[in-house]
Amino acid sequence: MTTLTPTTAAGAGRTARTERSPLALLGHQIRYEQLSFWRNPQSMVFTFVLPIVIIAIFGAVFSGSADDKFFFGLSGMQYYTPTIAAVSVLGACYGQLAIVLAMRRQTGVLKRLHATPLPAWVYFTGLLVHCIVVSVVDVALVIGIGSLYDVPLPTHWGAIMLTLVLGAASFCALGVGVASLIKNSEAAPAVVQFIQFPLVFISGSYFPIHSEVLNNIAGLLPVKPFNDAMLAPFAQNSGYQWRDLAVLAAWGVIGALISVRSFRWDPRPE
Q: What sequence ranges are listed for the domain ABC transmembrane type-2 (predicted)?
């Protein structure tokens, strides 16, 4: 019978650890996040049903309306389809991620993950890819519902995809940053909504903002640039909105810096 000494055990652990490449680990983590999401019917349904319900309600209200100065020369549905799509990305990549991370920390899941050989960058990249996949599905559903109300399809798909990926990455970084500041999972929804709701409303997601001062302020925050970068190629036949994308990227960097400095794997002692 062979005795496994600590030295040989450590060697065996290193061998097992190197059996999978980082890309294989990343693929496994993405698959885990996807399975966890799709096997949770309640979370899945509300993630996709809420934006569909909202855009359907707006469709019932504004269907057949002509272009209007109130919507900056667009019809109501041309305005709301991209902005509601943007809200769905914000919810999937910022709101849900911050709450999920706070819950996983509180229940000890993050602590156990941190004790495994899984690199931190693989874990967070897996979360990012998962959020992008969910966001793509959300945006596709909203666009599909919008098309039922005669909203033309986007003209610049490259700009849409770049905006979607950059927005998802930035909001994920901000979600992780906010999760780092949440003391316990019970407070997570309140903290997330306290930040998200004012940003959504002053950014013109649910109704156009005609105040120049408020638009200038909101333009320096992450949500309005994302709305505008989605709106331009979707409804205004414009391409890449580099200024808005730069603001989004800057907020992503800020969120990443907060995350790196403040993120905790262990629950905070009460």
A: 42-266
